[in-house]
Structures are given as C-alpha cells and as structure tokens.
Design a protein that fits this description.
The chain is an alpha+beta fold. It is built from four helices and eight strands, in the order ααββαββαββββ.
C-alpha cells in the first residue's frame, strides 16, 4: 500500500514538471509572435553609439631609387673598308752593290771505267774431238751444236747446260751436252774490275771429221 502511494506521488510530480515545461514553450512562442521578446531585448541591450573616425593618411616620402648597375658593353669597331696605300719612303742614300762572280761548279768526276775480263779456258780444258762419237764418225756425221751454259765465280757450271741450236744430228747434240758438262771446273771466270762474276752465254761446239 505504501508502494502504491509512493508511485502515485512520483507520477504527480512528473506530470507537474511536464506541464510546466509545456507552458514555458507556449509562453516563448507567444512572446515571439507578439514582439514582446524584441522589446525585452531592447530594454536589456544598451543603445549603440556610433563615432566617425577619420583616417589620417600620412604622406610618406618615396623610397630611394636602386643604385644604377653599370654594364660594360663591348663595342666592336668594324675594319675600315677603304685601304689607303701609303707609299714607302724613298731613301736617297747611296748603296753599294757588290757583284760577286762565282766560279762555275766543278764538273762531277768521271765514273771509273769498268774493265771486264772475258770468260776463258783454263788448264786441262777438255778437247771436243774426245767427245766425238765413233758411230757419228762412221756415218760421216758432222756439225755444230750450240749449248747455253752459266759459269759461276768459281769457274764451275752454276746450272744445267741447255741445247739452244741443234747440229742436225741427235748423236752430235747429245755429245755436245756431255762435252759442256765436262767443262765444269775448267773455266777461268769472267771478271769485272778484277772481281770474278757470274757469266751466262752460248757455247758453240763443233764436230769435224777433218780435224783428226
């Protein structure tokens, strides 16, 4: 029973507070609608005082100009188009010109003469008839065969003899080649200014029946 009484008192207080809040909102809305709120604000807010303040413009002197910057300019002077020929100063002094007569150059010395000593036959040089084939003699064959030989500074053949002209007989041509090879080592070499040199030439080899 006591709990019910307590709840009833609580409900009554809560209801009274709620009603008071609603009444306050209604009063505020009415005041806004009737302009009472604006009057209240005017009464509370003090009147605004306005004062005109004149701005004094101080005339400050202009800033000094910046120092001038010196720029060195290179002036290119074009060359003159007109060239004036200045005549050379003429000297009237007496100059002595000496003419030196030079002797003509001596002629170059004449080259020393070259002395050749021809190829010669040395001691124990072979005889042609010793190489005359008996078969050719019996057949009556005779003639001259030409053989090309080369003799070195030592008097010996430096290359193999070559037949350059036939005698007309094969037997005599072969005999001429044998004879040319037999002459190796029996030659006196050709000399130039006393110095032995190599010699190449043609050697005619004759085979005659009447030489016996």
């Amino acid at each position: 029973m006591s709990a019910y009484v307590h709840d009833t008192q609580y409900f009554t207080r809560r209801t009274a507070v709620l009603i008071a809040i609603i009444a306050l909102h209604i009063l505020i809305l009415y005041a806004l609608a009737t302009g009472l709120m604006q009057k209240a604000v005017k009464l509370v807010e003090p009147p605004l005082k306005t004062q005109i303040v004149r701005q004094v413009h101080k005339h400050l002197p202009p800033p000094p100009p910046p120092p001038p910057q010196l720029v060195q300019q290179q002036v290119q002077v074009p060359p003159p188009l007109i060239q004036i020929a200045v005549p050379a100063a003429q000297s009237h002094a007496i100059t002595v010109v000496k003419h030196v007569v030079r002797a003509p150059p001596a002629p170059p010395p004449a080259p020393a003469p070259v002395v050749y000593t021809p190829l010669g036959r040395g001691r124990d040089f072979p005889n042609t008839q010793n190489y005359y084939p008996q078969s050719a003699q019996q057949l009556g064959e005779q003639g001259t065969a030409t053989v090309h030989i080369c003799v070195g500074p030592n008097g010996r053949l430096s290359s193999r003899p070559q037949l350059v002209r036939t005698s007309g007989s094969g037997i005599l041509d072969r005999a001429a080649l044998r004879y040319a090879r037999a002459t190796s080592g029996h030659w006196v070499p050709e000399k130039r200014n006393g110095v032995p040199i190599n010699f190449c030439g043609n050697l005619p080899i004759k085979f005659r029946l009447n030489d016996f």
